[in-house]
Amino acid sequence: MKWFTLLLIVTSFIFAEEKTLVEELGYPKETRVLIVNADDFGMCHAQNLGTQRAFESQSITSATLMMTCPWVLEAIHYVKKNKITSVGVHITLNSEWKRYRWGPLKRKNETLIDKDGKLWRRSHEVELYANTEHIKNEVHAQIQYAVDLGISPTHFDSHMGSLYGIYTGRSELVAIAFSNAYEFGIPYRIPYLKALKPFRDMGFVMIDNLILDKAPDNEKRKQHYVDIINSLPYGVSELYIHPAVRNSELRRVTNSSRKRQADLDIFAEPWFKKAIKDNNIVLISYEPLRKLQRKKMKWRSGLKAQDVYEEYRKLIVTSRDLRTQWKEYIGSNMPAWIIFASDVFAIFYRLGWSPHNPDSVVTLLYIVGVFVVLFILCLLIQWICMFFHKPHKSLGKIKTTSRINLTIGLFGAVIALFFGIKLVIVPVCIAILSGLLGRRFIQNSVKKG
Q: Any transmembrane segments, and where (predicted)?
C-alpha cells in the first residue's frame, strides 16, 4: 500500500499540468485578466495631462515613463504627490517626431544618436546602428534614473518595440532586457513565446497576450476597442494606449494628436467599465506580477545585470526560433509591409551592415563586387544569345532585357549573401535563366518586327 501511494504521488507529479499565470496570481484558470497601460507618460505636458486624467477616471491601471524626455519630471511629481504605485519605465531608444526630439541619458552612447544628436527616429535604425554596449548602458541608466528619482518601477517596456529585435533578429536585445529585469526584480513586457521558456523556467513573469496597437484613426476606433474587450482571451493580457489632451502643444509635437485624444475620451466613457463587468474581466496593474516574479526568483537587492547578460545572450542565441515566433505573433496583428521590412533589415544585419561595424566596408565591397559581376554576366548572356540569332534590328532591346536580368540577378545575389558565400551559384543560375528568358523576349520581338 505504501509503494502504491508513493507511485501515485510520483505519477501525479509527472503528469501535473504547469500552472498558468492567472493561476499563479490566485485566479481560476479560465479568468480574463487585463492590464491597461498608458505609454509615453512624461513625453510632453499634454501627454501628462491625458495620463493624469486617465488615472483619475480609472481608465488605466498603469503607466510607463519616458525617462529621456524633459517633461518626465512633471509626471514623476504627479506620481509621488498622488502616491501612485503602478508606474513602470518606458525604455526609450527612439525620438520619432519632427519638431520635438530628445537624446539619450548617457551622452557618451554615440551610436544611439543620429546626425542631430538625438535618438534614432525608427526602431530598425536602432537595431542596425546601435552598439550593444551602448544599448546596455542606456537601458540600465533609464531604469536607474527612475529609481534615483524615487520611483519603484513595477515593470518596464519598450518604446516603439526597439528592445524586441523584431526587425533584425538581434537576440542580444532581449538578453539586455531580461538581464535588467533580473537586476531590478521587475517584469519585462513581452508576450510569452516558446523560445522564451528558459526565462520563464528561471522565474521571469511574462504576460500571455500583448494587444498590439492597430486601432484605426477614425470613427471605428471605439468599436475596435469594444471588440478587443468583448473577445479578450483567458489569461493575462495587456492593452496599451496613449491618452493625451489634444491642445496646441500636442498638435505641434505629434501627428497622432487626434488618436491620443480619442484614447483619453473612449476609455473614460461608461461603456468601458460596463464591458469589463459584463465580460467578468479582472483589471490589475503590474504590481502583482512584480511581486510574483520576485517571489519565484527569490529576488534581492544588489543583483547585477552584467553578471547574467552573457548567460542570457547564449540562451537566446541557442533558441533560434525567437524571431520566427515573433513574426508569427505579430503577423496577425501587424501590416504585411512591416513583416516584409523586418525581413529586409534582417538581411542587412546578417551581413553586418552598420556604420559602426568595422567589417561593413568589406561587406559593402563584396556586395558591390557581386552585383558588378552579375551585371557583366547578364550582358554577356544577352550578347551571346543575340549573336547566335543575329536579331540586328533588336539591338536596342539589350538595355531593357539586361535590366530584367539584372533585377532577377540582384534578387539572387541577396539570397546568396543571406545564406552564405557558398551559395553564390544561386544568382549565377538565376542570371543564366534570365538570359534565356531575355533570348526568348528578343526572338518574339524579331518575329513581331
A: 334-352, 364-389, 409-438
